[in-house]
Specification:
Radius of gyration: 30 Å
Oligomer: single chain
Largest sheet: 7 strands, parallel
Helix content: 25-40%
Strand order of the largest sheet: 5-7-4-3-10-11-12
Number of domains: 4
Number of strands: 28
Number of helices: 23
């Protein structure tokens, strides 16, 4: 028996006698930790209030040695007034209690109880945190909360995605406060973490969130009131203005739940106040946009469904295709790419099995640019091992140097073309053999679904297949699709009826609507904005970076302002330019790296540094360090650009500061001068060599810099190539539509001519 900090007895491994309702009404907080977790647990529970119950249950999942009895429960009991239990199989959870996973067990959450299982993976490959978080998400949905504390590796990352996909909340320990930051950094890298805090500050924020999110009676499923409906329309406008995407035809219940979750994160009481907060905070509009797009995805999700797809569709596609015919697939709403890569893996296996070498084109699209960037990179946490067989993991993935991530094999990556695309607005792909659109239509209202299914019918080849999510169906479009497998929602395109005309996609695509003007800011908000010039904005930011030379540009590289002596790097003199382009004016040795760095900074919304560039100026080479900073990441004043400036320049999020510095470590070198007819130099070295080249350390740094430039250039080229391929496919589809319309017009014209002749004969 232990004493808690209130000196009340705490019983470990004790069965609970107090009855609890079968349906839980309180949140469940899963906390995952590994190395360094004990100190984090201590700080977390020490931050709990002494005089109030948190009204939630805590389940601690720690990486434990399977061969030793754990005393974690006794240690935790020292820091909390709650009862602490080491979990026994089937134990039902109660509020204001903490539960500790026992050694050598996996643990899942089911119907309010904790279920213990024998670990199936070998030691060293177990992922108990992901396993528990995923089960918690499936069971508790929006009442699931997860916290990722100190630890190595990436366990918990996939669980974070599952929790957010079900509408739950995610916290992660601030990496600066950890002993080992691998797990928190991996979780934060998903972009799905709501709070990034030291453990001592988590408890108060957690309690505030829970009281706001669950302290009111649950919302009924009735239609929104006129006041809420009006606020939703304004939110849709704000989302469309910033993202270009219209959510007004998505299911109101889904939209409202996600908005309420964001309100709870910020402790905002009413939807009207949240609307005003969105108007004043563009970053929150982006955060809401991301929350609306979050879906649960992983490799071979619903394994039985993918097995049916493999046996009844993939094998048929491969065997029926001539050896030189391409196989074309569209993965619509691909998110971070796991499902699209799963399709590619199935095709690769089937093609190898029959020793056939067809070209495979998988068009994977989503409206979330951040998700597409993740998919393009093909880099996933090591915890994906739980979703893949060892054979597939070894064959189609390569472990990175740190062992915390896997990269998809190039042979699979080359099958896919990733692109940002709006499935309900942009032209579809055509002549497809398979469309996979899983768990996308469940978020759309019936009117939007009725537009989407005929579009899929149009895009498929005769006899092509449609693969939907387990909760989706073709509904009233049984005349367009025949059922292949009812349980796993596999359908086959029916051929066009000989007596009916094939519809063109223009009849069911949403019109391209011009964006509404942004809602006006309140007078109070306008008065708060600081009016500063581009010069003040640029110089203030440069002072923060301690950089002598810089340029303020937009995403295209157009120069808005120059600071310092730029002649060594660029042609123009300091001053406002507005029409010159820095990419065209960059000197030899700087141009390629500058273009790549600017693209990467714009794409990833992060600072990009390129050290050790050799820039040629007036016959001499200077070693230059290049930095490209998205302005919003380094200057808070960027949110307050003068309204007059904002009318003629892009918003702060699209401005970039380019900083150029001569390297203090590597002196400038004169360009080589030829001596004699053979071009030999006086020191006996070959032409083009400098003292820097003779320094092995400098040479290694230069080689690494060139490798990084090459990687960046390859990534940039691949993304451009994929965008061009997608645009080409969309143009083909549009061209086919125009041809179809032209044929209809010709047919109508012929009918009119016939009628005219008949009338003339009368």
């Amino acid at each position: 028996m232990k004493k808690d900090k209130k000196n009340k007895p705490v019983h470990l491994s004790e069965r609970q006698e107090t009855p609890v309702p079968s349906e839980l009404t309180f949140p469940i907080v899963g906390i995952g930790a590994s190395a360094g977790g004990l100190a984090a647990f201590e700080a977390f529970f020490s931050g709990m209030p002494d005089d109030k119950d948190p009204d939630m249950a805590f389940v601690l999942v720690q990486h434990l040695d399977p061969n030793y009895k754990s005393i974690l429960g006794e240690l935790i009991a020292r820091y909390t007034r709650m009862q602490v239990f080491e979990v026994e199989d089937g134990m039902r959870v109660r509020p204001n209690c903490a539960y500790i996973i026992p050694p050598n067990r996996d643990m899942a959450f089911l119907n309010g109880t904790l279920q213990l299982l024998e670990p199936s993976a070998p030691r060293g490959q177990r992922l108990p945190i992901d396993f528990f978080f995923r089960s918690l998400a499936l069971d508790q949905h929006e009442r699931a909360i997860c916290i990722v504390l100190s630890g190595t590796g990436s366990d918990g990352t996939l669980g974070v995605r599952a929790i957010k996909g079900e509408g739950g909340m995610v916290m992660a320990q601030n990496p600066a406060s950890t002993e080992y930051d691998g797990m928190p950094r991996s979780a934060i890298g998903t972009g799905l973490v709501d709070y990034e805090l030291p453990p001592a500050e988590m408890a108060s924020q957690l309690i505030a969130y829970v009281r706001h999110a669950f302290g009111k009676p649950p919302r009924t499923a009735s239609a929104p009131t006129p006041r809420i409906e009006n606020a939703l329309q304004k939110i849709f406008i704000l989302l469309r203005n910033q993202s270009g995407h219209d959510f007004s035809q998505y299911k109101p219940s889904t939209i409202q739940r996600r908005i309420e979750r964001r309100m709870a994160v910020h402790q905002i009481e009413t939807i009207d106040l949240y609307t005003k907060y969105l108007q004043q905070t563009p970053t929150e509009v982006q955060a809401l946009f991301r929350d609306l797009l979050i879906g649960v995805t992983n490799f071979f999700r619903d394994p039985e469904a993918f097995k049916v797809l493999e046996t009844q569709v993939i094998h048929k596609l491969v065997t029926d295709k001539p050896a030189n015919a391409p196989i074309r697939i569209w993965s619509a709403g691909c998110s971070t790419g796991e499902e699209a890569y799963s399709l590619a893996i199935l095709l690769a296996e089937s093609l190898q099995e029959i020793k056939q070498n067809n070209t495979v084109q998988i068009f994977a699209t989503d409206i979330d640019s951040a998700a597409i960037a993740t998919a393009r990179a093909g880099l996933y946490p090591a915890s994906i091992a739980s979703d893949l067989s060892p054979e597939r993991l070894n064959r189609f993935f390569e472990a990175t140097g740190d062992g915390n991530t896997y990269r998809i094999h190039k042979s699979i990556r080359d099958m896919l073309i990733f692109s940002e695309q709006n499935v309900i607005k942009d032209p579809p792909f055509s002549k497809l053999d398979l469309i996979s659109c899983r768990n996308l239509m469940i978020y759309m209202d019936s009117a939007l679904q009725k537009k989407l299914l005929p579009l899929f019918h149009y895009a498929l080849n005769p006899g092509g297949f449609l693969f939907l999510g387990t909760s989706e169906t073709v509904g009233e479009f049984g005349d367009l699709f025949a059922t292949v497998h009812r349980n796993f929602k596999l359908y086959k395109r029916k051929d066009d009826s000989p007596n009916s005309e094939r519809q063109s996609p223009g009849r069911f695509l949403l019109p391209q609507v011009a964006g509404h003007k942004s809602l006006p800011q309140t007078a109070k908000n306008r008065n708060l904005a600081k009016k500063i010039s581009l010069r003040e904005l640029t110089e203030a930011t440069l002072l923060q970076q301690v950089a002598p030379t810089g340029a303020l540009v937009n995403v295209q590289g157009d120069i808005l302002y120059l600071h310092g002596r730029t002649g060594m790097y660029l042609e123009p003199t300091p001053g406002e330019s507005g029409v010159n382009n820095i990419l065209k004016m960059a000197r030899e040795g700087l141009k390629l790296a500058l273009g790549t760095a600017l693209h990467k900074a714009a794409f990833n919304k992060e600072t990009v540094r390129c050290p050790g560039l050799r820039v040629k100026t007036n016959g001499h080479f200077s070693v230059v360090n290049l930095t490209v900073c998205p302005l919003s990441t380094i200057s808070e004043t960027a949110d307050h650009i003068d309204a007059e400036i904002a009318s003629t320049t892009p918003p702060a999020e699209s401005l970039y500061l380019i900083i150029l510095q001569n390297s203090p470590d590597l002196p400038s070198q004169a360009a080589p001068q030829n001596a004699g007819p053979a071009g030999a130099r006086a020191d006996g070295t070959a032409p083009g060599f400098t003292a820097t080249d003779l320094d092995p350390f400098a040479a290694d740094a230069r080689i690494e810099s060139l490798r990084q430039e090459l990687r960046n250039t390859e990534e940039y080229s691949q993304s451009i190539q994929e965008e061009l391929t997608t645009s080409n496919e969309e143009l083909k589809s549009t061209n086919e539509e125009m041809q179809s319309v032209n044929e209809e017009l010709q047919s109508t014209n012929e009918e009119l001519e016939t009628s005219k002749e008949e009338l003339q004969s009368v």
